[in-house]
Amino acid sequence: RAEIRGSHFGLGIRCLTTLGHFGFECLPTQLVNKSIQKGFSFNILCVGETGIGKSTLINTLFNTNLKENKSSHFYSKVGLKVKTYELLERNIPLKLTVVKTVGYGDQINKEASYQPVVDYLDAQFEAYLQEELKIKRSLADYHDSRIHVCLYFITPTGHSLKSLDLLTMKNIDRRVNIIPLIAKADSLSKNDLQRFKNNIMSELNSNGIQIYQFPADDEATAQANSSGLLPFAVVGSMEEVKVGKRMVRGRHYPWGVLQVENENHCDFVKLRDLLLCTNMEDLKDQTHSQHYECYRTSRLQKLGFSDMGPDNQPVSAQSYTDVINVLVSTPPHIEIRGVATQNIGDFQEMYEAKRQEFHNQCQREEEELKQTFMQRVKEKELTFKDAEKELQDKFEHLKRIQQEEILKLEEERRKLEEQIIDFYKMKAASESAQAQVCTNLKKD
Ligand code: GTP
């Protein structure tokens, strides 16, 4: 179908514009359809003190009541609660995994409070790496549990960051995209809030903590990075409150209503837009291309891999994964799927164990081959011996028959010779008798 747009330069040439979609211009539609069919997944880590408002904010962000029990303040160490939800928004499926700290900031000695978080992040990278290293990998169906974003809930003290905040963020900033949030921001006045934001940002900078940089593609995101918006001052609530004639989500106070989705009241809408509408894909990309890549490189380097070959030349364009695949695929019988077992924590140890296992298996097979070979040689020797004996017997038999024949012939010859002698004797006798007769006759 085409639309006639009028004459061209008045020459009567019609300019036609296509109305339908043809050719490869449909490529984006294909991608959209495929992605919708496959569904989306997003993994969020919420780090913050007990009762700081983590669950409420997640509920508010996804406008869903994800049932959660309150955590106790009496855990002896920090833990993590992992829950996966299947959400649907206008037929767009989202597999959302929320990981929340439990007991964070509740211990007297907070020195190792960040460690479970670090361990969890690394464990997800390790699981992905193990999947990548399998011979038969199924990354398309793999449930990728790597954390795409860490919402770090800062307690609204109005002063500065606590040493626990700095320590944790310092230890996870190379592993995850950190978005700092001032939780329960409704407890700070406008001036205090701005001052608090400035203090936090200068503390993060002076401690060299890398937080997620929103891609500065458009004005809003550029503003989020540069202006005083970060860290986002958020307020969460699933409560419906009446404001004038409208029902809004907010928190009702004796002095009025704080509207969660009012940009003059808090940064919730900006956070939701930047996190879910604009940058969800970028967060996932950064997780893979920056944080996971960093983990993978250091992991493979620890295993002794290098991009330089023995001649100190780069090892072609092959990735580490390909090198590993070549190496690990050399043993033909080893089931690499087993590599992913959770029990073997350390990859190097596991790799060595697999190599040893392969070596032992080779030796066993070589031994078995030797045994089989010897057995078959013995069997062949026996067969040959039997055949030789049979031949010998046949030969002996024929020889005996031949000798018997020779003897028989010899006997016959002897008999014939005797008969000839007898014959000559008789002949001679006859001849002499005949001569005697003739002589007698002549005499007579
Ligand atoms: P745990 O999972 O138990 O550690 O708690 P949490 O961090 O998930 O906190 P939760 O969302 O359960 O909120 C704890 C309390 O804080 C609840 O009473 C919430 O109503 C309240 N709360 C949550 N968000 C806000 C907020 O933005 N401002 C204020 N003032 N209170 C909030």
From TrEMBL:
Belongs to the TRAFAC class TrmE-Era-EngA-EngB-Septin-like GTPase superfamily. Septin GTPase family. Pfam families: Septin. The keyword Nucleotide-binding applies. The keyword Cell inner membrane does not apply. Keywords: Coiled coil, GTP-binding, Nucleotide-binding. Residues 38-302 form the Septin-type G domain. It comes from the Eukaryota. This is Septin. Residues 348-426 form a coiled coil.
